[in-house]
Design brief:
Layout lengths: L1 E20 L5 E4 L5 E6 L4 E4 L8 E2 L2 E6 L4 E18 L24 E3 L1 H4 L7 E15 L8 E6 L2 E3 L3 E6 L4 E2 H12 L47 E7 L2 E11 L4
Parallel strand pairs: 8-11
Antiparallel strand pairs: 1-7, 1-9, 2-6, 3-4, 3-7, 5-6, 9-15, 10-14, 12-15, 13-14
């Protein structure tokens, strides 16, 4: 198959992460200047903006903030990125009366999610700086540049999985989970699953994906990255979309050190 066209996917992650300094002395927390960060102090009444520009907010040439003894701060971080996704096209070969019908369009899964957790966001080697919680919203906008001239039929999943937290309040509601999506594709094309040789198959940990990404017809359906959240076994949500212009998906995330 060749690419029939491309779609763009814009991802915006807006998170509030609450930290506390449990030490009896101040700590200078180095923050990544590549991110759009706002620091809230004193009950959200005072903010530190543009910390990496202010010379007073550098220590040993490292940008960051001071956290006072026993102080709790909320760090708001906004992360944005854009991905490009190719829609597969069915190739028709013959011109001599053969290959008049070339295939059936199925909704390919376009994206594979990345993973985030409290530890990956703040990999701190400090026993006094502790992450209390995070919460926020993720927006995922998938669109084309042809202004709806052509109809599209595709599937997408969440762009980011928070492996230690809870994802909820999906808008719009997702169509099905990943296992149901694969089953639906087999039913849609009127084919059956491949038989698996148990002795030769790789044994995966419980809860991990172990599904074939290819139908008997040879059509690739896409396989998301393998995800095993720490709090429970999780099935990725999947949206099956028919659109001319695009779709915007939002969902909320939360995690607490004391449990959800």
């Amino acid at each position: 198959m060749r690419a029939a066209g491309t779609l763009q996917g814009d991802v915006l992650i807006d998170l509030n992460v609450t930290l506390v300094n449990t030490a009896p002395f101040p700590k200078f927390l180095v923050l990544n200047p590549a991110y759009n960060i706002t620091v809230y102090r004193r009950g959200n009444n005072e903010t530190d903006l543009g910390f990496y520009i202010d010379k007073g907010m550098n220590l040993n040439y490292n940008p960051g903030i001071w956290i006072m003894p026993y102080e709790t701060v909320v760090i708001n971080v906004r992360v944005s990125k854009t991905e490009s996704y190719s829609l597969p096209s069915i190739t028709c070969g013959g011109t001599d009366g053969t290959s008049i019908g070339c295939g059936v369009v199925v909704p390919p899964l376009l994206n594979s999610p990345s993973q985030l957790s409290a530890l990956s966001m703040f990999p701190l080697v400090d026993g006094h700086i502790r992450i209390l919680e995070y919460q926020g919203v993720v927006k995922f906008n998938v669109y084309s540049g042809d202004e709806g001239t052509f109809r599209k039929f595709f599937a997408v999943t969440v762009p980011v999985v928070f492996v230690d937290g809870r994802m909820y309040d999906f808008t719009p509601n997702y169509t099905m989970n990943y296992s149901e999506y694969v089953d639906a594709l087999f039913e849609y094309t009127g084919t059956g699953r491949r038989s698996v040789n148990v002795e030769n198959s790789v044994q995966m940990p419980q809860g991990m994906f172990q599904l074939t990404p290819t139908l008997l017809t040879g059509v690739s359906v896409g396989m998301p990255g393998q995800v095993l959240p720490s709090n429970e076994s999780y099935e990725l949500p999947v949206w099956v979309v028919t659109t001319g212009t695009g779709v915007e998906i939002t969902y909320r995330v939360e995690w607490s050190a004391g449990g959800l």
